[in-house]
């Protein structure tokens, strides 16, 4: 791009890609009043079901937007606790299939005690359509059938050229920041020259949507997925009940077939005739009548970007960390990347935080993304690819609840947070509002209504103190005035009634204590007793948390 590029459009944040990471970034920026433009080369969100479900931590974040969690819950397609099983076998008629429980009443009940959010039992395609609609309702500009052609950046802004794939018109967009959520092929990352590490691409999976009469074969079936290994192929099967109504696709069944480009395999090899043969093998029904309705390809890979930020450009989702699907946390990680970027960018663009706050995105999300990718790779080796055992240093196993709700963060803007692999995960049932921990979910009464403490977080930082007479309240008010930032504050025994003592215990909120919680629900700072000079101490703490000085 030359300096002679004609002047074009202006936005605060340009987002590339309309998957989980891109749509969530755009949604939460628009909800916070930030001008955001998203470009996506496809004409719409995906029609392929892709991943299934939104885990509790992601739903915690989505429910910050009024009505969004209810919108998702109204479209749930199954009882996850009762039906979340995976089987492993040769084909769907294999009498010796191994069954693996990934939901279950015990796990779901324990998760339900730790969060006010419920599991979102929807396919990714349906969730993306809900995120798109909600983002547009909040004012985000989403340009589908538009492709990023090139970009450059300097100390002041990003300048990009975008092509309208319908008209062929090319135009310029100037933005303060660019979020690259452009998928596993990651063209923005490639242009930036950011390297990656990990095992790389392992294989690809051709997903085939089809219709067939499998009522007798599937009678009583509860499994979400069946992994298959036989002499013809390895892959997976999923039943898409009420496909058109629920998933928005024509094709009640999905078969995924693994293939290897390095062996000469190509997408073009999957003719309708070959797909029918593979489906008959998978169902062990040689004369099955089959209608192929759609095909697509996704990559099975373990690849983590060496950097998640370069100047004014940020990587999110698969552009930053591609991971095997085993475990179901790839989409959650992408969605949480988007939420993290949105609150930080909004705070900086509104002038509430200093630009250094953005450094915390890479510092925190890099560790979480890499850990999640490694754990999903370990599950892949266990379930589908024993040949990967010993080829990578897999992390030790932890309970599912830890991975869903127990990740901790550490960066310069979280004073007092411990840093290191041994402190990256904790038992969320025992977390006590330490800096870097996710703030515990407990119920309290506010204005006569029982709510979760987490319902008071979301738009900005929030302060909780141990008594209505706490000196931290005056200190917070003065610091917020000096820094010109909104800072709601709530006192135990004043604004909040804690009849069960749960908040007192889990937050250790004695009369002199104070806990500052970020928009993403992580604890940014705490004090266990009131300082002799609370105003000065809290002013310094808030300035550190917002990457600012008292002068702004």
From TrEMBL:
The chain crosses the membrane at residues 12-31. SUPFAM superfamilies: FAD/NAD(P)-binding domain. Gene3D superfamilies: 3.40.30.120, D-Amino Acid Oxidase, subunit A, domain 2, FAD/NAD(P)-binding domain. Coiled coil: none annotated. Residues 10-375 form the FAD-binding domain. The lineage of its organism: Bacteria, Bacillati, Actinomycetota, Actinomycetes, Pseudonocardiales. It holds the Pfam family FAD_binding_3. InterPro entries: FAD-bd, FAD/NAD-bd_sf, RIFMO-like. It comes from the Bacteria. Keywords: FAD, Flavoprotein, Membrane, Transmembrane, Transmembrane helix. This is FAD-dependent oxidoreductase.
């Amino acid at each position: 791009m030359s300096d002679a590029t004609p002047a074009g459009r202006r936005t605060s944040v340009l987002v590339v890609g309309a998957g989980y990471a891109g749509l969530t970034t755009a949604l939460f920026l628009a909800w916070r009043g930030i001008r955001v433009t998203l470009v996506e080369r496809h004409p719409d969100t995906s029609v392929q079901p892709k991943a299934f479900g939104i885990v509790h931590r992601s739903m915690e974040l989505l429910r910050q937007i009024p009505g969004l969690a209810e919108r998702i819950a109204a479209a749930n397609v199954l009882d996850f606790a009762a039906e979340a099983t995976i089987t492993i076998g040769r084909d769907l008629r294999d009498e010796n299939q191994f069954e693996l429980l990934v939901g279950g009443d015990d796990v779901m009940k324990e998760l339900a005690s730790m969060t006010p959010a419920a599991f979102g039992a929807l396919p990714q395609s349906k969730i993306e359509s809900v995120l798109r609609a909600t983002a547009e309702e909040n004012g985000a500009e989403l340009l589908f059938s538009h492709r990023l052609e090139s970009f450059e950046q300097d100390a002041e802004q990003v300048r990009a050229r975008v092509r309208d794939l319908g008209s062929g018109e090319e135009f310029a967009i100037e933005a303060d920041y660019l979020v690259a959520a452009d998928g596993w092929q990651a063209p923005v990352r490639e242009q930036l020259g950011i390297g990656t590490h990990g095992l790389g691409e392992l294989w690809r999976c051709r997903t085939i949507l089809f219709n067939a009469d499998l009522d007798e074969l599937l009678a009583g079936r509860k499994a979400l997925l069946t992994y298959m290994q036989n002499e013809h192929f390895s892959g997976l099967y999923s039943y898409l009940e009420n496909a058109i109504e629920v998933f928005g696709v024509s094709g009640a069944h999905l078969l995924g077939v693994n293939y290897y480009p390095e062996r000469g395999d190509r997408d073009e090899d999957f003719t309708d005739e070959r797909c029918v043969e593979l489906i008959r093998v998978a169902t062990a029904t040689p004369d099955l009548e089959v209608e192929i309705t759609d095909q697509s390809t996704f990559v099975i890979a373990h690849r983590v970007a060496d950097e998640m930020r370069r100047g004014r450009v940020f990587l999110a989702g698969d552009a930053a960390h591609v991971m095997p699907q085993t475990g179901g946390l790839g989409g959650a990680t992408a969605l949480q990347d988007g939420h993290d970027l949105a609150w930080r960018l909004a705070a900086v663009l509104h002038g509430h935080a200093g630009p250094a706050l953005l450094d915390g995105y890479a510092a925190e999300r890099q560790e979480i993304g890499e850990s999640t990718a490694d754990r999903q790779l370990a599950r892949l080796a266990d379930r589908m690819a024993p040949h990967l055992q010993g080829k990578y240093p897999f992390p030790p196993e932890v309970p599912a609840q830890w991975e869903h709700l127990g990740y901790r963060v550490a960066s310069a803007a979280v004073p007092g947070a411990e840093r290191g692999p041994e402190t990256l995960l904790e038992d969320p049932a025992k977390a006590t509002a330490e800096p870097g921990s996710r703030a515990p979910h407990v119920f309290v009464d506010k204005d006569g209504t029982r709510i979760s403490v987490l319902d008071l977080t979301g738009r900005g930082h929030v302060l909780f103190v141990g008594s209505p007479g706490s000196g931290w309240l005056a200190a917070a008010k003065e610091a917020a005035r000096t820094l010109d930032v909104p800072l709601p504050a709530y006192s135990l025994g004043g604004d909040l009634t804690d009849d069960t003592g749960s908040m007192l215990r889990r937050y250790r909120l004695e009369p002199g204590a104070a806990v500052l919680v970020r928009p993403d629900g992580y604890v940014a700072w705490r004090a266990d007793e009131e300082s002799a000079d609370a105003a000065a101490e809290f002013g310094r703490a808030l300035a550190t948390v917002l990457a600012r000085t008292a002068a702004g």
